[in-house]
Amino acid sequence: MSTRNTILPRIPFTGLTIAAMLASACSKQPETSQASTASSHAQAHVPTLKDAYKDAFLVGAALNLSQVNEEDARHAELIRTQFNTITPENLLKWENVHPEPNKYDFEPADRYVALGEKHGMFIIGHALVWHNQTPDWVFQDESGNPATREALLDRMRDHIHTVVGRYKGRINGWDVVNEAINDKDGSMRDSPWRKIIGDDFIENAFTFAHEADPDAELQYNDYSLADEPKRKGVVAMIKKLQAAGVPITGVGLQQHNKMEWPTTQQIEATIKDFADLGLKVMITELDIDVLPAATGHRGADVTLNVELQERLNPYAGGLPDAVEQALAKRYAEVFGVYYKHRDAITRVTLWGVTDAESWLNDWPVRGRTSYPLLFNRDGSPKPAFDAVIKVPQSAN
After folding, report:
1. Which of 77, 203, 217, 285 does the annotation list as catalytic?
2. Residue 291: which of 265, 310, 304 has the closest Cα?
3. Which burial class, exposed, middle or buried, applies to 316 when counting CB atoms under 10 A from its CB (0-12, 13-18, 19+)?
4. Inter-axis angle of helices 321-340 and 264-275, to 10 degrees?
5. Active-site residue flag, 179
């Protein structure tokens, strides 16, 4: 996924950038304390997501490597001003941070954590144990045969203790296990982790993470939990973990939503079911896809790959206003549910910053032009941004 140039976020309804607004204020005022006060007052009233929801929950974004490196100053300003929690899109996944046996690459992750600390953000680690983006060697012995249970548990322990231990007290929460439940019936996914270790690979992962950092929040993360069969499977799994005394803090609802799915009723039911378990609820990977469905699958299986067709990419030249307004309405509905359940939800993280770097440009169809987030490709706020900002005001 590529990152393109972005600009400073603009004030809805005026079109002014932060820089332009401050420059205008300074040009009209003499260099006095009064001018300084006016400038500070104006800057304080620039609408931001983190300010709009400061009494409800944290609002964050998933960052790619170029954003962590702050390669574009304007994009960096957008991240700094709008969000108070961050998640690494890929750089802490096993294939990137631990690509070979006995070899760790922490340089990008170190910069990611330093960025979050610089801006006083709640920092998330994603993801420790997943069946995707994990090198084949993890599940094999030196001859290429399947590893033994004991060997794989040792590798899991070493990986988690090393990665979590390095950032103990600095990364605030971890997606410990990612997507371990099947979509259709809520059964356990027959991943290499389960095949070799057994169902207790989840229990062991959480235990190792807690050993490495007893104060970190530890969550299970999955998609399509609005579908009742899958949700029931995850609820049953978590109840077993809780009964065994496993240190699980919360559940991450990925919320890769469509325009018509899930319904607000399904979202509410999902939040309530997990909150009733005494868990913190996090919206971990939010986006809303306006493009035509490429398959009958509505989950987030990263292995899907569909050939690009013109009918699947109808907005290559820009999003029609009617669709833009429909997306804004949909975002307002979804955030309305989150705000209603703000006592249960601790954070809402968008999966990307602007439409330019969204994974939906290349999944499940590579090369589409997607519009699933709150900021345009140039970094300017969309009508959906304005709609989301207004939700707490309307509710109060």
Report:
1. 285
2. 310
3. exposed
4. 30
5. yes
With cut-offs at 50, 70 and 90, classify the pLDDT of residue 27: very low
Percent of the chain with pLDDT over 90: 80
Q: Is residue 5 part of a domain?
A: no
Number of CB atoms found within 10 A of residue 378's CB: 14
Q: Is residue 19 part of a domain?
A: no
Residue 45 resides in a domain: no
CATH of the domain at 184: 3.20.20.80
Domain that holds residue 307: 54-291+299-395
- In this structure, are residues 314 and 292 in contact, taking their beta carbons and an 8 Å threshold? yes
Number of domains making up the chain: 1
- Separation between Cα atoms, residue 280 and residue 261, nearest integer Å: 23
CB atoms within 10 A of CB 258: 14
Q: Collapsing DSSP states into helix, strand and coil, what is residue 283?
A: strand
Q: Comparing 16-25, 90-99, 316-325, which segment has the lowest mean pLDDT?
A: 16-25
Contacts of 33 (CB under 8 A, 6+ apart): none
Residue 255 lies in a domain: yes
Cα distance between residue 396 and residue 394, in whole Å: 5
pLDDT score of 195: 98
Q: Which of 199, 155, 196 is nearest to 181 (CA)?
A: 199
- Strand, coil or helix: 228: helix
| Known catalytic residue at 95 | no
Given 179, 203, 217, 324, the catalytic residue: 179
Residue 136 confidence class, pLDDT cut points 50, 70, 90: very high
Identity of residue 280: K
Cβ(337)–Cβ(48) below 8 Å: no
Q: Strands 122-129, 256-258: parallel, antiparallel or unpaired by DSSP?
A: unpaired
283 burial (CB, 10 Å; 0-12 / 13-18 / 19+) is buried
Instruction: Kindly tell me the number of DSSP H helices and DSSP E strands found in the chain.
Output: 14, 9
